Amino acid sequence: MKNIEINTDTSRRKSHQVEYKANLHRIADLFDQGYSKKDTYELLYEKGYISMSYRHFCRFNSTGKLTAQNRAKKPIANKRPKNSKSNLEFSHNNVVTKEDFDELIG
After folding, report:
1. Where are the domains of the chain?
2. pLDDT in tens, 16-31
3. What does the pLDDT read at residue 6?
4. DSSP symbols for the chain
5. d(Cα 60, Cα 64) in Å, to the nearest integer?
């Protein structure tokens, strides 16, 4: 018999998908009865029907397919056109005279 390497990340993910699809009828029934997604997950997990995390459970759609990862997206940097007037370099004098200081303080 040959030694076959198994990618445990992939096989675990696939087994979770199998668990989800095997319980689609239960999941649909619980949703129809008014259970929330969290309550449905907890019930199925406690009874041993599924072994995945709640976060992974939420990644499946109603047909049992994995949806896009719901990760927080990085904020988009504020990009201004290079020729914009607001893109001019800001420079200031970082030396404060006594008169300026007295005026600022009051």
Report:
1. 1-70
2. 889 999 999 999 999 9
3. 44
4. -------HHHHHHHHHHHHHHHTHHHHHHHHHTT--HHHHHHHHHHTTS--S-HHHHTTB-TTS-B----PPPPPPP----TT-GGGSPP-------HHHHHHHH-
5. 5
The pTM of the whole model exceeds 0.70: no
**19, 52 in Cβ contact below 8 A?**
yes
| Two structure tokens written together for 24 | 């689609």
**Cβ proximity of 57 and 41 under 8 Å:** yes
**φ, ψ of residue 98 in degrees (nearest 5):** -60, -40
- For residue 53, which of 64, 65, 45 has the smallest C-alpha distance? 45
